[in-house]
Design a protein that fits this description.
- The complex is a heterodimer of chains A (102) and B (226).
- Helices cover 80% and strands 0% of the residues of chain A.
- In chain A, helix 2 runs antiparallel to helix 3.
- Chain A has 102 residues and is mainly alpha-helical.
- With 226 residues, chain B is an all-alpha fold.
- In chain B, a hairpin with a 2-residue loop joins strand 1 and strand 2.
- Chain B is globular and about 65 Å long.
- The two termini of chain B are 36 Å apart.
- Classes of the chains: A mainly alpha (102), B mainly alpha (226).
- At the A-B interface, helix 1, helix 2, helix 3, helix 4 and helix 5 of A face helix 2, helix 4 and helix 8 of B.
Chain lengths: 102, 226
């Protein structure tokens, strides 16, 4: 696949992404050390995690340089994981509720 | 630098790409299969993480990860230090892998092998940290089915199950990745890809390794930090 080998980013892009991955990892660590409330830190952690995942997928895994067809094929099914969580969470909450009731 | 196809209107892309006799994804079959494998693997980890979330929510109490994963160093308790070090190691290995892929693009055999071996080395370092962590917790009495009295995990029986399943499954991926990358490195060194005229195998292996790093981001966030 000589075609895909020609459209690769310069090494500076990798180093920049690498740098930001370190920064984001330490950000998450410091958010943890700040002892914020559970939900606030949960939201912040999720944002940082999604940013890191996006950087890795887009640049290290070259998803940004692939055809949109592939990008959609990979990213759209991941909605199912969110659906799974949304489906399971009410059940977990009801178990928790019954634990407290009985 | 977006690829050229992205500027073309969607209708034309659909017509031209899916019209038959074309390559709709514009990548080789090997790379496409790796992407599909990664997608299915993402579902496995997604399922495990959601299962862990459900168990944690329904159990109503959970041991504080900061206390469990603290390290005693220089007479002080450092919360989550080992996990921070492990994250640092894995992000570093991902960076080396990216450099290996870049060197492979430039058909630089020596540098590709060197960066691949560095990636493996950091993967092994990560595994050693994990082995230390596992043996520490097992020594404290934690089991997948049991948590002893007078331990921080007491009363949360599911903690052990979640911990060993999630980190074990991820560790297994790291271990397979190290083996996979060593094989690729040996083949690069032998000149297999030089003869074939394509170093794409390195890029495909890179996809796998970056994915394992990506999964760690979520395990690190939702299991250790939260």
């Amino acid at each position: 696949m000589t075609q895909s080998e020609t459209k690769h980013p310069p090494v500076k892009v990798y180093l920049t992404v690498w740098f930001w991955l370190f920064v984001l990892s330490f950000t998450a660590y410091f958010i943890d050390l700040m002892h914020l409330s559970f939900w606030l830190s949960a939201v912040l952690f999720t944002c940082v995690a999604l940013l890191k995942a996006g950087l890795i997928a887009a640049y290290f895994m070259h998803l940004r340089f692939e055809k949109l067809n592939l990008v959609y094929t990979i990213l759209v099914p991941l909605i199912l994981v969110v659906a799974l969580a949304a489906g399971v969470l009410p059940d977990a909450l009801s178990v928790l509720l019954h634990r407290h009731l009985f | 630098m977006p690829s050229e196809t992205q500027a073309v209107p969607l209708e034309e892309v659909l017509k031209s790409d899916w019209g038959g006799g074309k390559s709709p994804f514009g990548i080789s079959w090997g790379k496409l299969m790796m992407w599909l494998f990664i997608l299915s693997d993402a579902f496995i980890f997604g399922g495990l993480l959601v299962g862990y979330g459900a168990l944690r929510v329904s159990s109503g109490q959970w041991p504080e990860p900061e206390k469990i994963f603290a390290l005693h160093l220089f007479g002080r308790e450092m919360p989550l230090l080992l996990i921070a070090v492990m994250t640092f190691i894995l992000v570093s290995s991902s960076g080396w892998m990216a450099l290996a892929v870049h060197a492979a693009y430039e058909r630089d055999r020596q540098r590709t092998v060197r960066y691949l071996l560095l990636t493996c080395l950091f993967g092994l370092l990560f595994l050693s940290c994990q082995a230390y962590e596992w043996s520490k917790l097992i020594h404290e009495g934690l089991r997948p089915w049991f948590a002893p009295e007078h331990s921080p995990f007491y009363g949360v029986r599911n903690f052990g199950a979640c911990f060993f399943t999630l980190t074990g499954f991820h560790g297994l991926h790291i271990l397979s990745g190290v083996i996979y990358l060593s094989v690729i490195a040996a083949r690069v060194a032998k000149g297999v890809y030089e003869q074939r005229g394509s170093y794409e195998a390195v890029e495909i292996a890179g996809l796998y390794w970056h994915f394992v790093d990506l999964v760690w981001v979520f395990i690190f966030t939702f299991f250790y930090l939260l």
